[in-house]
Design a protein that fits this description.
Layout lengths: L6 H14 L7 H27 L1 H6 L2 H29 L9 H30 L24 H16 L3 H8 L19 H7 L3
Helix pairs in contact: 2-4, 5-6, 6-7
Length: 211
């Protein structure tokens, strides 16, 4: 007797299988992109949680603000490197002809536009220190962050960044970029309510205000 499966799960599996058929996992550019996508959030979460527990960076720089700004520079440099590796991977990966259409190109542009709006509006709402792990350094906002886009989305900077990468993958058009954008999963806050940059953005600051 044939066992019936979950149609939704089977459809998702078929889509993912088809996308993976356009991925060359041995391509050096793709490997570099995967490494940077995986390493970057691991780096800033480990360093920030270490600082939150020890305050060694703040003591070394003589100020939590200087320590936060110094760490943010390394995060920005790593993000530039990640974007470069991602772009190079999109140029070298197999392309899907069915995505090479004006409609798909327009969709990619729309996702890029949405991503830029979410990322920039999140940055302006949180401020520089609020975006780059300021709560780990004891730098807290004076009021709850409830303005756009935090009034419509949780983790808007994470979703904006994901939309940017997905949009670029569609424009390329290289399905490997869609696989890479799915790997950019948000990391949860520390047990005591500290947060992290880009991924879960405003909510840790909101929690910190009510300690």
């Amino acid at each position: 007797m044939k066992r019936s499966g979950n149609p939704g799960a089977e459809a998702d599996f078929c889509v993912m299988t088809r996308l993976l058929g356009y991925v060359d996992p041995l391509d050096p550019s793709f490997v570099a992109a995967v490494i940077t996508i995986t390493f970057n959030p691991l780096y800033w979460n480990v360093v920030a949680r270490w600082e939150h527990k020890t305050r060694k960076l703040s003591r070394a720089f003589g100020s939590p603000y200087l320590a936060c700004y110094s760490l943010s520079v390394t995060i920005l440099l790593l993000n530039f490197l990640r974007s470069h590796c991602f772009t190079q991977a999109m140029l070298s990966q197999p392309r899907m002809e069915s995505l090479d259409t004006p409609a798909a190109y327009s969709l990619g542009l729309a996702l890029l536009g949405l991503g830029v709006v979410l990322v920039l509006s999140s940055f302006f709402a949180l401020g520089f220190a609020g975006t780059f792990l300021g709560d780990y350094f004891g730098i807290l906002k004076e009021a709850r962050v409830t303005v756009f886009p935090f009034n419509i989305l949780d983790n808007p900077m994470y979703w904006g960044s994901t939309a940017n990468y997905l949009g670029w993958a569609i424009i390329s058009p290289a399905p490997a970029g869609a696989v890479g954008s799915e790997a950019r999963q948000p990391h949860g806050p520390a047990p005591d309510g500290a947060g992290g940059p880009h991924l879960h953005s405003g909510s840790p600051i909101r929690r910190a205000l009510h300690r």
